[in-house]
Amino acid sequence: MRNFIPIYAVLIVCVLVIGCASKEITPEPVERSTAPAVSLLIAPAEKLTSGEPVEFSVIGFDVDGKQTGAVAPIEWTSAGLMGTLQDGRFTPDKSAGAHAGTVTVQSGDIKATARVRVIPSLPWTEDFETIELEKSPVHWIGSTGKFFVREIEGNKVLVKTPARVGLDRSNVFLGPSTMKNYQIQVDLMGTRNKRRLPDMGLIANRCTVEMQCSRQRLQIRSWASDLRMAKTIDFSWETDVWYTMKMMVETTENKAIIRGKVWRSGEPEPETWTITAEDPLPNHEGSPGIYGYSPANIHYDNLKVW
Hints:
about 0% helix, 6-stranded antiparallel beta sheet, 25 strands, single chain
């Protein structure tokens, strides 16, 4: 008899499971293929912590996609990473800070490459002065080809331009999706493109604080496609003026309190939060990030996470 597979449905207030509580599900054993490997996979990949060594392993797959036994002999190389790599063991350089590169393994005629992001512990600061012009930080997710470091009045800033291809709306994630209990702050400035105005903001715990510039509003939401817990207030702003935005999320088991604060850069920070919202279905973790909808240029500078 085949194992019974339960059905899960996510509703607004709960997760509904349809199935038999007394039915035990026994996974079927998977036999390793004895055929030669034709492709390789490196694990783990994508995210490492500065200074902490990691042991990479190599998994082989045959022509049918079945996992094979041990792969040997293998040769390891890296590109763009700062640290030491020896026999599959990589130790990032603690002093190198956040960066990204690749690890490549080759066995005979087949090889595999994995992207690796090295993320230091908090706090982070980024003023973009060390980033190459027309580039963005390489360890960020979602910024390449959309956000560009440019020099404006002798100062390097990050600029989100109108999209060359596709949509003007972008989310950029700065770190691992498992982060929580942090605050994020950035200086940002919106410009005008004829009658078009941008929207811009910050991301924390999968929630967004957004300056809706054409509507002169400030909004907190968890998902743009479903404003189930969104809160919106009036907020006046001006083009070509720098503002500082700050965001934090506090979570308990049953709710999250999302707070946002916006003030003119250079002025004293207000004691009270500009906007606060409560989410009864909290996101307990999520990468910090920046948000931008750019029918007109958006400028970002002095990013901090702590």
